[in-house]
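Repro:
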Amino acid sequence: MSPVSDAYGKASLVPAVHRLSMCEAAARSCPLTMLDPWEACQPTYTPTLQVLRRVRCVCAAFSGAVCAKWGGRDANEEM
C-alpha cells in the first residue's frame, strides 16, 4: 500500500499520518501486504508511475535483485 501525499489536494482526504496508521493496521493482518510510507511523506504530489517504479526497486532490493531502470529513469527521478 502506498497512501498518497497530503499534497494531492483533495479536500476530504484524511491527513497522511492517519492514513498511514490505518494502512499499517490493515497490513499487519496480511503477510503478503506491505506499506510504503514514501509517497505519503513527499512534499508534492507524486505521479503513479514514479511510485510504481520506486516500489519495483524496493521489492527488487528486498529480494536481492538489481533494480533495472525503466525507460532510462531512476525511481526517484522527476518525470
